[in-house]
Each structure stands twice: as C-alpha cells, then as structure tokens.
C-alpha cells in the first residue's frame, strides 16, 4: 500500500525536488521513512525528464548532506531511543538511494567526509555514521586514490584489536559487501586481507571473508571478466583451516560456512580446479576434478560431518563418528603412488579440534585415534605431520588425566595411552627418512623442556623415547636437550616417577646417541644429572647396561676440545678418568685459601666416573676370562686422592681448597654402597676401594679432630666444612666395622677426644659482653659434633661406643644443660672474612635454628638410650626423670616448636613422644597431610609391643602393657586411608605400574617405596592383630577393647549419614571396620560374643552397601556356626515390624542361605530347620520382588536340608513347596524375573562362597572387595602382606589364600552396577551404520544489502541471510515460549522473529530456552496494537499472511502449500488470534489432531508450521536443480 501511495504521489507531483525538500522539514522518524520510500521509487523509476534531472540531483544532494548525514550522526531526531533508531535506519536507506540518483560525485563527497571523520575519531557513534556513509558511497566510487583510501580504512577497522569488535562487525557486515560490489575495490580488499602484507587474526579474517563470500565465491555462472576466485588462494585455505580449530565457536562456524560454500560452488561448476601448492612437494590445499566429482563430494561431506559433530562436545555423539576418520584416510591417500591426494593439514584440523576440546574424554579419544591410525595405516611422510606431532600432539599429551587406566584394567597395568604412545613413536620414527630422524628427535626432546611437565606425562614420554629401536641420530645438542629435561622438568614430589623417568631418559641416550659425535666429558655431564638415590646406582640393571654401553663404545667417543691426548681422534674411558682426577686436584694459587666450599658437582662427577671406569674394567676382564685382576687403572685413579689424605694429619699447610676437594671425593666414594639385595663381599671393586681408603684413616681423623676442636673454623662459611667433616665420621666408622675391626681403636680415641673437647668448648663462657663470630661458630661446631657422636652411637650399636668414659660425660652434660639456648648474633664481622659472611638476621637465624635442633637430637638420644628414664627410675649416675624435670623438658619443647622452622621440629616431637604418650595422636592428625608419618609411628609401636628388645624386656615385665594405652591408635590404623581425588588416584595407579616393572626399572631397586604405600598402615595393624593370642589375658582384653571400639565407630558412621554412596569415605570406613572385625572374630570367646552379637545384628538393620553387607552376613554365619546357642537371638531379628526390616531383611535371609554351615556343630537340627522354614515361607510372599528372590534362595537351601534329614513334620508341605520351587525354576516369559532368578543363584555369595573354607586374608581384603565391586584402591593383595616384613605373620599361620574357585570368579552383575564392561564392544566396532548429525544449514546465508536494515546488523555477525519466512509472535507473552520459538526460527532459517517487546530478550527463562539464538536471528519489535499496520505493510511487500488458528475455512497443514514469502501469525497462549486480526489473514492453517485435548502449546504449533514451510522450500529447491 505504501509503494502504491508513493508512486501515486510522485506521478501527480509537478516538482519532485520540492516534494523531497518538503518531506525533509522537519525530519522525524516517520518523515525519514517516507523520504526513504520516495527516494527508492525515484531511483527505481528510471531517468527523470531532461529538464527535471538536474533539479532532482541537486535536491538529492541536499537531502544526503544536510538531512541524512546529520541524522546518522544523531543530531536531528526524535525523542526516544526507538524512534531515533528508526530514523537512522531510514536515513541509511535514503542515503544509498541519493547516491544512486547523484552518482559518483556524491559518492566521492560522502567518502571524503567519512574518511576525515574516521581519522578524527569521535567515538563509536561517529565511527558508525562514517561507516554507513562509506557503505552508501562504496558501490559508486570511481577515483582510484579514493577507492584505495576506503579499502585501507575498512581493513584498518577489521584489524583493530581490543574495543574494535563492534566496528569490525559493522564493517564486515555492511562496508565490505558494498566494496565487493565495486569492481575496482574488490581486488584491493582481497590483497589487503590475504596479501603479502599479512593476514588479520583468524576471527577477523573469517568475519571479512564471510561478508565477501558473494564476490569471492559467486553462486551463479562465472562472469565474462577474469574475476577473483578464493579457491585458488593458498592463504584463503590456511585461514579457513585456522578457523576450523579456533577456540571461538563463531569462528569455527564461519570457517565451515566458507568451506561448504566453496564445495557447493565446485560441485555445481564441475570444472577442473587446483589451488597452487603452498610450498615444497606438499599436495594442493584444494582441488576439484569433474571426473572425481562423486568421490570428492563423499570425502568432503564426511569431513564436514565430522567437524560439525565435534561441535556437540558430547562423547556419546562423537564416538560413533570417529571410525569415519578412517574412511577419510582411504580417500586421501593414493595406494598406487603412496602419496597424499588431499593435503594432510585437513586431517590435522580434525585432531587439533579434538585435542583442544574442553571434554577431556574427547581429547583422549582423539589422541588414541591419532596414535593408532598412524601406527596401523603407515601414512606417507609429510612435513605437516612432523610439525603436528611436535606441536599440538605434544601439547595435548601434557595433560596428566589422559593417562588414566580403563575400568577393565587392574591396578598396576600400563594405561592405554602409555602403550599406544610407545608403539606410535617407534613406528613413526622408523618410517621417517634417515635425514629427518635426528632433527625430529631433537625437536621432540626440546619440546619436553619448553614447559613445566607434570610427572606422569614426562614419565610416559620418556618410556616412549626409550622404546625407539637403537639408532645413532643424536649428537651433542640432543645430549644437552636430554640433560635439560632432567634438570628443568624433574620438579615433582613423586620420587619414584621422577626416578623412573630418569632411567628411561638414560636408556634413550644409550640407544639413540651417536658416540662419534659426543665426547666423554659431555656424557659424564649428562650422567651427573641423574640422581644416584633415584635412578643411576651401582648393582642395578641400568648401571650394568650403562657399563656395557661404555665398554662397547670405549674408543668411539669424540675427542674433547680440552683433551690432553692431542694425538688421538678418540678418547678412552680410562684416559679420560685419569685426566679428570688430575685436573680435580689442581688448585690455582688464587683460589687455594677461598673461604667458600667448592661445589659438590666436581666431586660427584669424579666419584661417578671412577666407579664406572672400574666397573667397565672389571667387565672387560670378565669377558677376556681373567680371574686375578690387578686393578692397575683403579689404583691409578685413587693414588692422587690417597696422597693428599695421607698428608692431612701431618701437613698443616695443604691449601684449604685441596683438603676440601679431597674430603668431598672421599665422602662420595665412601657413600657408595651395594644395594641391600646384593652381597658387599662379592663386590670386588668396592672392596678394593674400601681397603685402599682404609690406609689414611688415622691421618683423616687427626685432621678432622684438629679442625673441629681448635679455632680453625672461624667464619660462617666454615660451617659447610664442619658439615663435611661430620658427614665423614659415620662413614669412616662404617668402613672400619665392615673392613677392619682393628681400626676401631683409633676411632674410639677420636670419639672420646672430640666429645670431651666439644663439651669444654660449650662450657666456656664469653668474657666479653658482645660475642665474636669466631666464638659463636666454635660453639655451633661443637654442638654439631656432639650431635654426630649421638647419632653414631644410636645407629652403630655394634661399635660398642657406649662404654667410652666420655659418653657418660656427654649424657650428664646434655641432660643437665639448659634447653633452647640461643646464640647471640655477633655485633661485627672481622674484615678479613667479610666477603664470606651472612650478616643478615635471616642468615644468622638459620644458624641458631640448627644449634637448637642439635640440642634436641642429643636429648632424644639420651631419652631413647635409657628407657628407665621414662619410668622415673633412679640411676647410679644421679640422673633421674622426675615429674618436675619432665615438665621442664615439655615446656622447653613447646617453646622450641614456636622457634624452630617446620622442617626441623621432628627431634622435638620425638622427645615429647617419650614423655607424653598421647602426643602420638597428634601425629595421627599430622599424617593426613604428611605422607608416611602414621606408617612410621604404627610400625614402631607394633614392633616394640610384640618384639621388644633385650633392654626393654629388662625394663618392663611385659612389653604389651603399653599397648592398652594405645588401643585407639590401632583402631584408627584399621580404618586408615582417605578417599583420594581423581588426580591422586592417577598418581597411585602410575606408581603401581612402575612398581610392577620390578627390576626392569632401576628406580624400584634404588628407592624405598614400601612405606609410601597407603595400605601399609592397615596391613601393619592387621598383621599385628593376627599375632595376638586369645589365651593371653592381656591380648584378650586388648582385642575385646578393639572389637567394641570398632563397633561403636561403625554406629557413629551409620548415624552420621543414613544413606551414602558406593566407594565414598563412609562406605570405605565401614568396609574396613567389618574386615577387621572378621579378622578378630575367631579369637573371641563365647561370653564376649554373647554381649556384642546384638550390636552386630543391629548393624545388619542399617542401609549398607553390598561389600559391607557381605561382611556382616559372614560374621553372623561364623558366629552362629561356632555358637549355635545364639540362634534364638538371630530369630528375634525377624520379629521387628516391616518398616524396620524393609531395607535389611535381605541381609538375614542371605544368612539363612548358608544354614547348612550354621547347623554343622549342633545335634538339634530338626527344631532349627522347622523354625527356619516357618520364617522363610512368610517372606516368600512379600510384595518386594528382591525380598522374594532372597527368600526363595534361602527356601531352596533349607528345603533341601529338610529332604536330606527327612523331617516328617513337613510332609504335608512337600507338594506346595516343591511345586512353588519348580514353578520358579521353570519361569517363562521375556521379562526380568527369570533372568534375575538365574543371576541371584549364580551370584558368588550363594553359588561359590564357603564361609569356612574361604576364611582367609586374601578373601577378606582382596577377593571379596573385588567381587563386591569396591574401588580397586581398596583391594589389598597378599603380596603386600608379604612385602611389608616389619611385622611377620605367625609361623603357623594357615588361613592365608582364597580357594581357587572363588579367586577365579569375575564380579557378578546382580548388584546392577555398570563398570563399563561394554566399552570394549563399542571400541571394537570399526564402522557405524548411522551416526547422529546436527543439522547446520548454510546455503542462502550470505549478507545481502536488499534485506531490511533492521536485520543486517545481526545477520552480518555470521555472514548469513535467511529464508523469506517471517514469524510474528507479538501476541505471545510467556518468555519460555518466545525463547523456544527463537531457537526454532534460527535453526530453520527464518528471516525474522517479530515480538511484542525486545525486553523479553533479557529474561533468564527466554535465554535458557533460546541458547543464544537471539544473537543470530533478526528480532523486530512490533507491539500488539501495531500489528494491523505491520500486517498491511507486509501484504504490500508481497507476503501471504498465514494465521495458525482453527477456523471454519482453515486449511489442513498436510494439504497447504506455503508461498515463498510467508508470514506466520501465532496467537496468544490462552485466547489465540483476536477477532479483529482474523479478517487481515489471507489464510488460516490448522494442525490435524487425533487426541481429545483441543490445542497444542503455541511454541509446538509454531515449530510444526515452521518445519513444514522449510520442508516444502527444500523440496522446491531440489526440483529446480
């Protein structure tokens, strides 16, 4: 109607220019819309008469510059925001039509003004107005310089970061399509986006390319000119690929749109097309061939299906699609030529998208698929693959959680990713060309140093490297990279994992290093990065393998640049070690009297290489058949050291640096020991070294005594030397004890002299008020010396040093000395040593803390050496631990805890433990955060109670008397253990895997891992309980106390939470409680059980998990078997009301299923059977199906016993019971009843389990938890009971193993718990017949300037336009319905959704249903009162107004054919479409119904009609093609 009015007005108006000016004054929103309509009709009406053309152009010029431009800037305008928006929208259209009327001159003027405004800034509003002016001018620009400036401004806005997102969206949605319509501008835009000058970031580039899709990828036939084709540009495809893997979902959507459009264009044209290669010999990024049109379409459709499915981020949807990746590779590789047909980077996009998914399960599936694919397919080599492995794949592999084992794997198994990674790396490496292997491996190792890797990923990557077949490809750079891995990434608390990774990295070095490219000093530097206490240690397979490698390649190593052997190209190991030792003892004159200790690096290096060279020499002699080895080389290595050591006692002028180095090397050699599992006497290398080092012992002791007791240690820096001297003393004592007892005499003299001198030094009082540094350092050294003496006497009992007279003096001095004596900080530092001092308060504080700690170590030795002190007994020496003295020590201990740092308080706790037994429970609390504390405490207690030492026996009549005070300790130990987080369980699993490797991994031999196991505490407690004897009154009382406390604990746990989840902490504690009770049960007598059995029955009434239920039933069965007189108590359990029994009756019915075991020890079987039959029969008729099943199982057992005993009283019941049982056995039908009856009979507890024969540790702690489907970290295998040998099991211990029949069973499915047992079936499927696919429409979705202005700013965000369907929902007022309609309209491509108010968009209910659809769908606000005008306007535009309503003349939806331009009017939820709107409808459509209810929800109704419209349009498009 508006168009008709405009045409009529223009035809009857004599002066059109005057008409335009009249409409403009003043320019309100309505007038602006009228002006736009008039200008639109003028531009579409052809050229005006010659006399009027100039006046009309002048009027249009004025309207554009004086009216439209100010209105765009917000100068004129209506009052409200909505009115201003309407006016601006109309002004944009009017400006465009003015340019059409005026041509290039106006376009140039607008462009220049707009560019000037952009350059001047002015905020977002001015920027938007300038862009709109450029949009109107761009298609008509002709001047090249102006075109270039417009393109540059547009690209600058697209590239602008930060706050420029809105401007970039506006430019991409409006300005770039307008420039694309200008033939001169399009090439410049293309060059600016993808030219040599650099591409914008992927998100902005894709935004711009989507907007230019019509120009770059035209749907119609190609034009006569050359034109631009994005498909022929490699950079275009790189941007698309980058977009496919972007984290932003919108970028990915745009990239898929461009890919689909290019494919649709290619398949439609069926022309030969090939994008030039991006460089090298790689295949083309995109190509098309008419001959292979169908194959190409199949490949790309599968590819797009995969990429779109990955958007769902749901593993159950994605996993069925993954096998289609295999078909992609079949299409992508030429089997004949063995090369890629499609560029492999397309496949990498799929995997990278999976690797970066937020769903870790999807990431893991993607990695496993990639590794398996390359392993099985043997894909052609590609540079892109290599870069992908080093980049995205390794980035994904850094996630620790991916290395978890599958539910079907047992603890200790290698996780699937670990196994797959080893196979992949070995296969991939061997398939690489020889010239690329070294560079790939170097990049791979360097990647391992580029970030902080967690312990688990670094372990499995190291394993994968070690699994590569031997190949000499690594040189110096590779060796340095491996060393960097050791030094930079081994920052982790998991010592075992760290040690295992070191082992594998050393194996990698031996397998892959080219010996001719590396020198022995470089190898030695690498070896020093390995820690002896974690990996590289003598007597391990790894050490032997290293020695063998060095022996085989002894003369192959490259000569070092600094080598002394100039005439040789290669260097032998012995020559290198000899020169290394010589250089070690060379001391430059400038450094001889340095106050700083030399770095330990050199000493470690020399000691390690001496031992390696000696072992290699021994290996050579062994292979050559020599039996008498002269050790010439080893002697040559040691001689320089022995020369210095022999002179220490007599020559006081040896340089300090030289003495320090010699003693450091001596200490490292003495600390070398054979492993516990090997015999030291068989270690000929070690014996020779020790015998050689025994010679200068007197000289060394004399030197140490002089240094420690005189004033030679006078600076803070000398404390490091003090530590070195004191560390040597116990090593020398051990050396003499193992090699030559005769040397103990000088050692005893040394100990006596050191002790007496140290006491004298400590007793000296400072004569001056301000102490000097020299005096204070002397005291620190003296206290440290006494501490060393105490520790030697504590650890080396076989030396019998306690008989020395000086020991009594030491005891008296320590016992009566003042505790927590603090050394004052010196007021000044001597000038000569000023460079060596730590003068800060923090530095002196560390020294004071050390001094305090040493005092408490000495006191701990005194208290532990004399247990009678703890009892307060008098000693002949006059020392006694009175109450007053104990109180004073405790007060000092508390004071020390506030002074000392946390890592030095353990000696204080040890002293408190002796004095206050209850302190032990503080340590239990500490054990929840400090791993291993409880382990040590419990082990010590149990051993001291059961196996006291000789001294303890003399002091205590019975060591077990103390145990009564610690009953709660054992109770806590029996239930000890927390529920670990997922990441903690992963660490435990990997620990178990490494431990299962055994001797293959040296870290298992070197590190002590037993006490780290969380099961150690429970195993220790259970073994302790097994040692108790029920006939011993002390033991009996202790066990009864434990039994009561455990039952009370179970009651507390049950009361705290009546319902608890399987494998929760409550479940685990209850399970541990009943396991312990089951162990104690055979040791308890009848009287005690009589009083406690009621508590056991009460526990059965609780709501228990399956594993707890089985244990309670087992205890009841064993109790009734041993004492049948308790049966009356058991029958009472069935007398409670049904409300109490409804959750627990199955427990007691399960006990009756083992009634034959219960009645074994009674002669009165008939009365018991009669009672049991009466009880069971009443439960066979219970309304609960599960209860009936349990009752039938018990009935079957009891009736079988009655038949065997031929009980006459039940003859009358025989037909009824047997027919009932027969009916159950022959149950028919397809339901669950028959299957469940069979399941419960086959369940292990009823079919295989024997309460007496299966009573064993293995059944209680491993087999039953496994069959009850308890979490695997609750299974304690027998190997742990054997391995933890601190507490032995009794010699006559018989009940140990489960029966084979029970041990071999698998968990039954009666408990209905899904453990992922079907996952293997899913994985084994190679191809799925159908997959779930998300429908993502894309065609007809590029921006068009012909759409209404209201829609363009939203549609431009995605570069999409829509169908010609408008959905009008102005009458709907519920946000939920509107949100659902918004989502449905966006999915099916409606051109707009009309709502009564745009405020609905902010409603949370709307947003919950729309899931962001409002961002991609044009929304128009038309209030219900404005609907009549709106419908009339749409009629004039050619729309058919369709009402969704039931009327007398309405059409059936199945019979109605929708026009292309359709407008759906939806009624109100309650009233439908008002009567005043019905006559404005062109047609009414109703949905056929079959039910009684008369109407559907309005959202559902609208969705049905929208889908039917879409379906019909899709069919029409296919028919047109």
Structure description:
Helices cover 60% and strands 2% of the residues. With 1521 residues, it is mainly α. The longest helix is centred in the middle third of the chain and has 25 residues, at 600-624. Strand 5 (1365-1369), helix 67 and strand 6 form a beta-alpha-beta unit. Mean pLDDT is 79; it is low at 75-79, 829-840, 868-876, 921-931, 950-957, 1311-1329, 1334-1338 and 1340-1361. The strands form three sheets. It has a seven-stranded parallel beta sheet with strand order 7-6-5-10-8-11-9. Strands 1-2 form a two-stranded antiparallel sheet. The chain has a two-stranded antiparallel sheet with strand order 3-4. It has 71 helices and eleven strands.
Main features:
71 helices, 2% strand, mainly alpha, globular
Uncertain runs are 75-79, 829-840, 868-876, 921-931, 950-957, 1311-1329, 1334-1338, 1340-1361
The CA-CA distance between the termini, in Å, is 35 Å
Radius of gyration: 45 Å
- Write out the strand line-up for the largest beta sheet, numbering strands in chain order: 7-6-5-10-8-11-9
Total helical elements: 71
Helix proportion: 55-70%
Q: What oligomeric state do these chains adopt?
A: single chain
Shape: globular
Main β sheet profile? 7 strands, parallel
């Amino acid at each position: 109607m508006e168009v008709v009015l405009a045409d009529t007005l223009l035809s009857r108006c004599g002066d059109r220019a005057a008409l335009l000016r009249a409409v403009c004054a003043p320019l309100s929103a309505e007038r602006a819309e009228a002006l736009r309509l008039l200008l639109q009709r003028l531009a579409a009406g052809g050229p005006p008469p010659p006399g009027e053309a100039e006046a009309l152009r002048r009027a249009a010029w004025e309207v554009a510059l004086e009216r439209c431009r100010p209105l765009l800037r917000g100068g004129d305008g209506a009052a409200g925001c909505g009115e201003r928006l309407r006016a601006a929208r109309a002004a944009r259209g009017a400006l465009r039509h003015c340019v059409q009327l005026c041509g290039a001159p106006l376009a140039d003027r607008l462009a220049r003004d707009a560019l000037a405004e952009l350059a001047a800034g002015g905020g977002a509003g001015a920027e938007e107005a300038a862009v709109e002016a450029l949009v109107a001018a761009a298609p008509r620009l002709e001047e090249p310089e102006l075109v270039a400036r417009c393109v540059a401004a547009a690209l600058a806005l697209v590239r602008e970061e930060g706050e420029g997102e809105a401007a970039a969206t506006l430019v991409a949605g409006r300005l770039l399509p307008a420039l694309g319509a200008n033939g001169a501008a399009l090439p410049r835009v293309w060059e600016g986006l993808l030219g040599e000058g650099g591409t914008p970031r992927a998100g902005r580039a894709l935004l711009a390319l989507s907007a230019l899709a019509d120009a770059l990828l035209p749907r119609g036939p190609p034009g006569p000119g050359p034109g631009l084709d994005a498909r022929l540009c490699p950079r275009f495809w790189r941007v698309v690929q980058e977009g496919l893997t972007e984290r932003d979902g919108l970028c990915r959507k745009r990239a898929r749109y461009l890919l689909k459009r290019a494919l649709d264009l290619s398949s439609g044209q069926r022309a030969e097309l090939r994008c030039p290669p991006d460089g090298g010999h790689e295949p083309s990024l995109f190509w098309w061939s008419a001959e292979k049109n169908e194959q190409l379409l199949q490949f790309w459709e599968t590819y797009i299906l995969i990429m779109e499915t990955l958007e769902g981020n749901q593993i159950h949807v994605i996993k069925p699609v993954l096998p289609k990746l295999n078909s992609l590779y079949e299409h992508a590789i030429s089997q004949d030529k063995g090369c890629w047909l499609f560029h492999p980077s397309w496949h990498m996009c799929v995997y990278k998208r999976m690797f970066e998914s937020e769903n870790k399960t999807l990431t893991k599936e993607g990695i496993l698929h990639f590794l398996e694919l390359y392993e099985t397919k043997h894909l052609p080599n590609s540079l892109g693959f290599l870069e992908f492995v080093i980049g995205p794949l390794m980035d994904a592999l850094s996630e620790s959680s991916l290395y978890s084992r599958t539910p079907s794997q047992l603890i200790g198994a290698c996780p699937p990713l670990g196994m797959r990674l080893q196979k992949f790396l070995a296969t991939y490496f061997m398939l690489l060309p020889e010239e690329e292997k070294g560079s790939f491996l170097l990049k791979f190792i360097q990647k391992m140093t580029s970030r902080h890797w967690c312990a688990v990923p670094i372990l499995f990557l190291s394993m994968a490297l070690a699994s590569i077949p031997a190949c000499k490809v690594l040189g110096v750079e590779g060796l340095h990279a491996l060393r960097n891995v050791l030094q930079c990434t081994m920052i982790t608390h998991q010592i075992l994992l760290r040690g295992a990774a070191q082992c594998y990295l050393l194996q990698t070095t031996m397998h892959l290093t080219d010996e001719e490219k590396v020198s022995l000093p470089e190898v030695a530097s690498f070896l020093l990065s390995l820690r002896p206490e974690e990996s590289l240690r003598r007597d391990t397979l790894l050490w032997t393998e290293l020695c063998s490698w060095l022996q085989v390649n002894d003369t192959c190593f490259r000569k070092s640049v600094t080598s002394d052997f100039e005439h040789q190209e290669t260097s032998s190991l012995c020559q290198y070690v000899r020169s290394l030792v010589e250089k070690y003892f060379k001391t430059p004159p400038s450094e001889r009297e340095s106050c700083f200790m030399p770095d330990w690096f050199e000493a470690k290096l020399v000691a390690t290489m001496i031992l390696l060279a000696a072992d290699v020499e021994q290996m050579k002699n062994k292979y050559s058949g020599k039996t008498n080895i002269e050790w010439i080389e080893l002697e040559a290595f040691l001689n320089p050291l022995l020369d210095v050591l022999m002179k220490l006692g007599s020559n006081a002028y040896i340089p300090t640096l030289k003495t320090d180095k010699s003693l450091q090397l001596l200490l490292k050699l003495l600390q070398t020991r054979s492993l516990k599992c090997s015999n030291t006497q068989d270690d000929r290398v070690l014996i020779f070294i020790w015998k050689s080092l025994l010679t200068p012992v007197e000289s060394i002791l004399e030197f140490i005594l002089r240094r420690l007791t005189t004033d030679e240690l006078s600076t803070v820096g000398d404390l490091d030397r003090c530590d070195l001297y004191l560390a040597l003393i116990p090593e020398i004592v051990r050396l003499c004890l193992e090699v030559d007892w005769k040397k103990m005499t000088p050692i005893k003299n040394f100990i006596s002299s050191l002790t007496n001198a140290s006491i004298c030094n400590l007793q000296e009082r400072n004569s001056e008020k301000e102490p000097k540094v020299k005096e204070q350092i002397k005291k620190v050294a003296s206290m440290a010396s006494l501490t060393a003496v105490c520790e030697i006497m504590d650890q080396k009992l076989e030396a019998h040093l306690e008989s020395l007279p000086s020991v009594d003096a030491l005891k008296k001095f320590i016992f009566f000395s003042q505790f927590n004596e603090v050394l004052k900080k010196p007021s000044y530092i001597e000038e000569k040593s000023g460079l060596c001092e730590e003068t800060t308060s923090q530095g002196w504080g560390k020294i004071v803390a050390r001094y305090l700690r040493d005092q408490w170590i000495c006191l701990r030795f005194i208290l532990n050496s004399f247990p009678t002190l703890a009892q307060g007994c008098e000693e002949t020496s006059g020392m006694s631990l009175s109450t007053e003295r104990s109180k004073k020590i405790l007060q000092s201990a508390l004071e020390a805890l506030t002074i000392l740092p946390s890592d030095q308080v353990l000696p204080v706790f040890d002293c408190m433990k002796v004095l206050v037994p209850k302190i032990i429970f503080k340590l239990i609390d500490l054990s929840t955060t400090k791993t291993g504390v409880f382990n040590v405490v419990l082990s010590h207690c149990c051993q001291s109670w059961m196996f006291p030492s000789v001294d303890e026996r003399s002091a205590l009549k019975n060591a077990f008397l103390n145990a009564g005070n610690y009953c709660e300790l054992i109770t806590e130990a029996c239930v000890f253990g927390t529920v670990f987080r997922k990441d903690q369980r992963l660490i435990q699993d990997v620990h178990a895997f490494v431990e299962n490797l055994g001797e293959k991994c040296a870290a298992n031999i070197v590190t002590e891992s037993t006490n780290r196991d969380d099961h150690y505490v429970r195993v220790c407690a259970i073994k302790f309980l097994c040692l108790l004897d029920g006939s011993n009154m002390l033991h009996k009382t202790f066990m009864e106390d434990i039994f009561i406390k455990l039952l009370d604990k179970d009651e507390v746990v049950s009361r705290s939470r009546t319902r608890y989840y399987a494998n929760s902490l409550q479940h685990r504690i209850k399970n541990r409680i009943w396991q312990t009770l089951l162990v104690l049960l055979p040791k308890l007598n009848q009287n005690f059980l009589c009083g406690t059995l009621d508590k056991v029955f009460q526990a059965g009434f609780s709501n228990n998990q399956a594993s707890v239920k089985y244990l309670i039933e087992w205890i009841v069965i064993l109790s009734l078997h041993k004492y049948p007189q308790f049966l009356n108590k058991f029958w009472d359990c069935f007398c409670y009301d049904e409300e109490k029994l409804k959750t627990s009756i199955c427990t007691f019915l399960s006990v009756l299923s083992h009634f034959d075991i219960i009645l074994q020890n009674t002669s009165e079987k008939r009365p018991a059977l009669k009672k049991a039959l009466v009880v069971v029969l009443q439960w066979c008729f219970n309304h609960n199906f599960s209860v009936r099943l349990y009752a039938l199982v018990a009935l079957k057992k009891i009736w079988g016993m009655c038949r065997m005993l031929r009980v006459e009283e039940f003859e009358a019941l025989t037909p009824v019971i047997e027919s009932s049982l027969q009916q159950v056995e022959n149950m028919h039908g397809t339901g669950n009843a028959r299957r469940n009856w069979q399941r419960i009979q086959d369940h292990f507890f009823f079919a295989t389990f024997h309460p007496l024969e299966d009573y064993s540790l293995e059944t209680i702690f491993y087999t039953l938890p496994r069959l009850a489907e308890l979490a695997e970290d609750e299974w304690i295998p027998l190997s742990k009971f054997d391995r933890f040998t601190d507490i032995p099991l009794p010699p006559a211990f018989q009940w140990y193993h489960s029966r084979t029949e029970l041990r071999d069973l698998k968990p039954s499915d009666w408990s209905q718990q899904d453990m992922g047992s079907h996952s293997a079936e899913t994985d084994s499927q190679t191809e799925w017949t159908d997959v779930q696919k998300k429908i993502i429409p894309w065609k007809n979705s590029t921006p068009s300037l012909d759409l209404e202005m209201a829609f363009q700013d939203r549609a431009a965000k995605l570069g999409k336009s829509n169908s010609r369907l408008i959905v009008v929902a102005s009458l709907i007022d519920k946000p939920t319905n509107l949100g659902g309609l918004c989502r449905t309209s966006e999915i099916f491509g409606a051109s707009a959704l009309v709502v009564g108010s745009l405020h609905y968009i902010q409603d949370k209910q709307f947003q919950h249903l729309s899931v962001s659809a409002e961002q991609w769908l044009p929304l128009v606000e038309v209030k219900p009162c404005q609907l009549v005008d709106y419908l009339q306007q749409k009629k004039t535009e050619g729309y058919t107004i369709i009402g969704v309503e039931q009327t007398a003349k309405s059409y059936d939806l199945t019979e109605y054919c929708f026009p292309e331009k359709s407008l759906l009017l939806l009624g109100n939820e309650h009233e439908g479409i008002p009567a005043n709107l019905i006559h404005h409808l062109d047609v009414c459509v109703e949905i056929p119904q079959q039910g009684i209810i008369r109407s559907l929800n309005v959202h559902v109704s609208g969705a049905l009609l929208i889908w039917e419209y879409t379906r019909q349009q899709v069919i029409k498009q296919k028919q047109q093609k």
